[in-house]
Amino acid sequence: MQQPLLSVVINTKNSEAFLDKALKSVTFADEIVVVDMHSTDTTQKIAKS
Q: Is 24 a domain residue?
């Protein structure tokens, strides 16, 4: 029997100060989805890296 996949969804806006740490804290997930709510800082760049 196949193990179920685990997805983590992070909703964010202007979270450049802590997004990197948040992403590193969920490395156990099979999939990480970042939903950016029109950030004006470097949140999108961090999420794509």
A: yes
